[in-house]
Amino acid sequence: MKKTLRGAIVGYGFIMEKGHVAAYRERMAASRSGVREADVEIVAVADISPRRRELAATQLPGVRVYADYLTMLDAEAGKLDFVDIATPPAEHANVARAALSRHLHVLCEKPLATTIADARDMLDMARSSARVLYPCHNYKHAPVVQAVRKVIAAGDIGRVHLVTLQTFRNTHARGVAEWRPDWRREQRYSGGGIAMDHGSHTFYLAFEWLRAYPTAISARMSTMGAFDTEDDLSCSLRFPTGVASAHLSWQAGVRKVLYTIHGERGAIRVEDDNIEVARLSVDGEAAGAQSQWKFERIDVPSDWMDSSHVTWFNSLFDDFKRQIAKGEWVGREAEEAFLCVQLIQTAYESAKAGSRELPLGEADAESSSVRRKLRLQC
Ligand SMILES: NC(=O)c1ccc[n+]([C@@H]2O[C@H](COP(=O)([O-])OP(=O)(O)OC[C@H]3O[C@@H](n4cnc5c(N)ncnc54)[C@H](O)[C@@H]3O)[C@@H](O)[C@H]2O)c1
Fold first, then answer.
1. What's the gap between Cα 362 and its chain centre?
2. pTM for this prediction
3. Atom of ligand 1 at shortest distance to CA of 12?
4. Which of 117, 120, 114, 83 lies closest to 98, judged by CA?
5. What is the C-alpha to C-alpha distance for residues 251 and 191, in angstroms, rounded to an integer?
C-alpha cells in the first residue's frame, strides 16, 4: 500500500484555499469514497490571521490550527511528512528552512525566495536534509502549455529560437481581505512588484521553449502608482539557443497572456485558451516563392481567468509526490526556481543600472553548476 503524505499548511490565504486546498479536499474526498487510493491528508494549518485559521478549521474538519508556524512544526513533530507554503514571498525561505531542518519535504509557492542567497540556502538545505524542495511552477501544468509542448515535440515548427511572453493584468492580484490584501505593493512582504510576482512563470516557460538557460538579461521597470514595488517590467534575455523578450504589466486594460514561440519552420501563438500554429508550407519553401504558411487554430480550455488555477494543481502535486518517491531532493524544478530568482534579482539590478545588460551566473558557483547539470538534461 502506498503511503499517505501528511501535510501541514503555512499561509491559508487565496491560493492555498482556492487552489491547493480545493484540490486536496477533492483528493481526500475521493479516497474516502474509495474512488482513489488515499495519498494526502492535511493535518495542520498555521496562519497569523485568526479569521483565516477559523476558515481553515471549517474547511478542513479535524485540522489542528496554529497562529505561528514554528509552534506548529514543534507541536506536530513526528506527525508530518511535508509542509506546503503559501505565505507572501519574503517569508518563504524562513518557513522552508524551518521545515527542512525538521526533515520535512517542502512544496513552496513561487517565487521560491526573494533573494539569490536565500534560494541557494534552500537548495543546499534540501540536499543536506535529504528532503524534496519543490516549487509551484504551475503554468507548466496548464492544458494550453501542455498542448504547446506537444506541438514543439512533434517538430512541427522546428527548433525554437525566439520567444515573446506578455502577461497583462489590470491590477496587482489581491490577497485575502482578512490580512493585507495589497501586500504585493509592499516590498517588505513581497520582495518586489510584478517581476517578483510573475517573473518565475515567465522565465521557466522561456527555459522550456528555448531548451536552455539564459546567459544575460537587460530590464526596464516602472512604477505608475504610489507604491514601493514596480507594476511594469520589460526585459530581454539572451540564451545560447536564441532570445526571449517579456513584458509584464499590472497596468493593462485586460487580463490576458500572450505568448509567441518561433521556430525554423513556423510559429505558435498562445492567447489565453487559444493556440494558433503557423506551419511553413513545403510548396512555398521549395519554390523559393514568397513564404506561405498554413494556419491551424486550436482551443484548449485552460481556465486562465480563474487565478486559483485549481485545475492545474493535481498534476503538479503528482510530480511532487513522484520526486518524494524517487528521493530526488533537488530536481530540475527546484534548480529552475533558483535560476528564476537569480533572473529576477538580476533584472532589478539591470533596471537600476539604466537597463544595462548583465551576465548571469558567471561569478556564481551554484548557478553555473545548476546550469551545467541542467544543460545535460535539456
Ligand atoms: N502559482 C500561482 O499561480 C499563484 C497564484 C497566487 C498566489 N501565488 C503565491 O502564493 C503566495 C500567497 O499569495 P496569496 O495571493 O494567496 O496571498 P494571500 O494574502 O491571499 O494569503 C497569504 C496568507 O498568508 C498568511 N500569512 C502571512 N504571513 C504569514 C506568516 N508569517 N505565517 C503564517 N501565515 C502568514 C496571511 O494571513 C494570509 O492568509 C505568494 O507567494 C504568491 O506569489 C501563486
1. 24
2. 0.95
3. 39
4. 83
5. 19
Which cell numbers hold the place of 152?
514543439
Ligand 1 proximity of 69 Cβ (cutoff 6 Å): yes
CATH H superfamily, domain 139-304+331-377: Dihydrodipicolinate Reductase; domain 2 (3.30.360.10)
| 106's grid cell | 517542502
Q: How far is the CA of 14 from the centre of ligand 1 (A)?
A: 7
110 lines ligand 1 (CB under 6 A): yes
Say whether 81 sits in a helix, a strand or coil: coil
User: How many Å lie between the centroid of ligand 1 and the Cα of residue 354?
Assistant: 32
- Domain spans of the chain, in order of start: 5-138+321-326, 139-304+331-377
Residue nearest to atom 19 of ligand 1 (CA): 175
Altogether, the residues listed in the chain come to a count of 378
Q: Which atom in ligand 1 lies closest to the alpha carbon of residue 181? A: 19
pLDDT tens-place values along the chain, 378 residues long: 568 999 999 999 999 999 999 999 999 998 888 888 889 999 999 999 999 999 999 999 999 999 999 999 999 999 999 999 999 999 999 999 999 999 999 999 999 999 999 999 999 999 999 999 999 999 999 999 999 999 999 999 999 999 999 999 999 999 999 999 999 999 999 999 999 999 999 999 999 999 999 999 999 999 987 889 999 999 999 999 999 999 999 999 999 999 999 999 999 999 999 999 999 986 655 555 667 999 999 999 888 888 888 889 999 999 999 999 999 999 999 999 999 999 999 999 999 999 999 999 754 556 666 666 665 444
Q: Cα of 249 to ligand 1 centre, how many Å?
A: 20
175 lines ligand 1 (CB under 6 A): yes
Could you tell me the three cell numbers for 142? Answer: 496548464
Instruction: Provide the strand spans (E) within 154-207.
Output: 160-168
5-138+321-326 CATH: 3.40.50.720
